[in-house]
Amino acid sequence: MSRPRKQLPTCLGEGELRYRGFAGCVDYEIKGEPGTLKLGPARLRGWLTATPEVAEEAFRAGEAELRLESGGAFRITLVGHSAGSNVAYFEMRV
Predict the structure, then answer these.
(1) 85 CB contacts (<8 Å, ≥6 apart)?
(2) What span, in angstroms and rounded, lies between the C-alpha atoms of 79 and 77?
(3) pTM of the predicted model, to two decimals?
């Protein structure tokens, strides 16, 4: 018997992405509430939308900082991107 999973809230917005050699605006969607993230191994997953070039370069950089609309800044690890796509997938932690 499968157990229903708790549905995480979705956090949408426009933020500032920073990685080596780049700082600019991106749209993001995060599964979960970033304000509840505590120091430790817990992570939230999400994706960002930018130009295909920015998404690819961010993925190649591997790590970046994402400043949310609410003002919070989080380290993100880029974990996925498809060639030519304007979307990059990430995990964020405190």
Answers:
(1) 52, 55
(2) 6
(3) 0.86
